[in-house]
UniProtKB/TrEMBL annotation:
SMART domains: HTH_MERR. It comes from Gordonia phthalatica. Pfam families: MerR_1. This is MerR family transcriptional regulator. Residues 17-86 form the HTH merR-type domain. Residues 83-110 form a coiled coil. GO terms for molecular function: DNA binding; DNA-binding transcription factor activity. InterPro entries: DNA-bd_dom_put_sf, MerR-type_HTH_dom, MerR_fam. Keywords: Coiled coil, DNA-binding. SUPFAM superfamilies: Putative DNA-binding domain. PROSITE patterns: HTH_MERR_2.
Length: 135
């Protein structure tokens, strides 16, 4: 997925839309479980001015993933928290790679006329420092 498309998709997924009872129903959990996960830092929803929790589509997907890891894989909450942290790091690194690829493509286009093609060859080049050269 291109960088711009990924960013737009992320913005839609991050939009806070569901109050806690709706998010709990969508995730197949009790609202108290969502409060516990919020307190533990597993899923931290956005807050309204009055302090009410607002869950995004991404939050609901994360709640489902937590439930799957806990019930199907037998991972405890500390393990789930670590998995989430590592997943966030991987996502951030993917975004960084996308940015670097974009910068490289831009720089390559800018320097296109300056590069000289070098023919492929099977020749062997042996390099020696000047101090050890034999004459």
């Amino acid at each position: 997925m291109a960088g711009n498309e990924r960013r737009r998709s992320d913005e839609v997924a991050d939009a806070a839309t569901f109050m806690i009872s709706v998010a709990a129903e969508l995730a197949g959990m009790h609202a108290q479980t969502l409060r516990t996960y919020d307190r533990l830092g597993l899923v931290t929803p956005q807050r309204t001015r009055g302090g009410g929790r607002r869950y995004s589509n991404r939050d609901v997907e994360m709640l489902r993933e937590i439930q799957r890891l806990s019930q199907d894989e037998g991972v405890n909450l500390a393990g789930i928290k670590r998995i989430i942290e590592l997943s966030d790091e991987v996502e951030a690194l993917h975004k960084r790679v996308d940015d670097l690829v974009h910068q490289l493509e831009h720089a390559t286009r800018a320097r296109h006329g300056e590069l000289v093609p070098v023919p492929r060859t099977n020749a062997l080049v042996v390099w020696q420092p000047r101090s050890k050269r034999t004459r």
